[in-house]
Amino acid sequence: MTNGTHYSVLLKESVDALVKNKDGAYIDGTFGRGGHSRAILASLGSQGRLIGFDKDPEAVAVGHELAKNDQRFSIVHSSFTQLKEALSKCHVSQPLDGIVLDLGVSSPQLDNPERGFSFLNDGPLDMRMDNTKGQTAAQWLAVAEEKDIAFVLKEYGEERFGKRMARAIVEMRQQTEINSTLQLAKIIADANPKWEKGKNPATRAFQAIRIFINRELEDLENTLSDALDVLASGGRLVVISFHSLEDRMVKRFFKEKSRGKEVPISVPITDNMLNKELKIIQKPLKAGDEELQENIRSRSAIMRVAEKL
Do domains 11-107+216-308 and 130-213 have the same CATH topology? Predict the structure, then answer.
C-alpha cells in the first residue's frame, strides 16, 4: 500500500455479509475514499440505493464525484449519527437492508501531515475529522485541566502512564505553545518510562486524543441504537473496529440485543417472549495473512455482523 492510498479493510468479507437484497437501500457510515461504497454499488442492482456519510470534507468531495457518475449513490457531509435525518432528506422511506461502519481514521488522513493525526510526520496538531469546525487538539490541550487530559489518555487510550503524560503536557505548555504533532509526540515519549516493543510510545495517547476530539465513542453508541430503528427485518449491521473500546461496545450491544430482556431463571417464559432484536450472524472476523501483507494497518481490525430480527 502506497502513501495516500486508502485500503478498504475486510472489503470482500464486509460487502458479502452486508448485501443480501440487490435492490435494497444501504448506508456506508464511513465513506472514506469510497472503497466499501464502490464495492457495495457493484453488488447492487439498478434499483439499489446507497447513502454514504463522512465528516471529512476531502472524503465528501470524492463522494460527490461518485454521486455524479452513479445516481444510486448520495453523499452526506455529516457523522453517521445523523442517519435518521439524512434518510428523510434523501427521500428514503423504506427500512434499510444494511449498514456498514468502518470505524477509525482513514489512511489518507493518517498519511497527510496537515491533518495532524500522525506522530511520525510533523504537522499542525489538528486531529479533527471535519476540519471545518470544532476544537483542534492543540486548542484543547492548551486549556484542558491536567486531570481531564489524564482521564482522556487513560479512558480512550488505555494509557497506563496517562497521568505522567498529562503532567508533562501541562508543564510544557507553561513554557511554550504545543501546536505540532512531533512536538506533542516528543513530550509524550519523554514522559513514557516503558516503551512497548514494536510500538511508538505516542500511539495510545494520539489515539485517545483523536477519539475524544471527534466524539467517536459517543457517536458509535448513539448510532448502534438508531441502526435498529431504521433497519428492516433481516437487515444487516456490519461493524469494523480498530480499537478495543469500540469493539467491546459493539460486542456488548450485539450480545444484549441478541439475548433479549433478562428474566429470572425460575420464570417460565418462551424464547419469543424475550423480545430479541438481533441475531449474531458469524464469529468475529479478522484480516487474513494475504490482506495483512498488503496493508499492515489491517492487523487490529475486527468485523462483527448482526441481523435484525
Answer: no
Please choose, from the candidates 32, 184, 204, 218, the residue with its C-alpha nearest in 3D space to the C-alpha of residue 116. 184
Q: Mutual orientation of helices 146-157 and 162-173 as an angle, nearest 10°?
A: 140
Cell of 27: 448506508
What residue type is 46 in one-letter code?
A: S
pLDDT tens per residue, range 176-210: 999 999 999 999 999 999 888 888 999 999 999 99
Helix axes 162-173, 203-213, angle to 10 degrees: 80
The CATH number that domain 11-107+216-308 falls under is: 3.40.50.150
pTM of the model: 0.91
Give the whole-angstrom CA distance, residue 285 versus residue 305.
9
Q: Where are the alpha helices (DSSP H) in 144-196?
A: 146-157, 162-173, 181-191
Pick out the chain residues at pLDDT < 50: 1-4
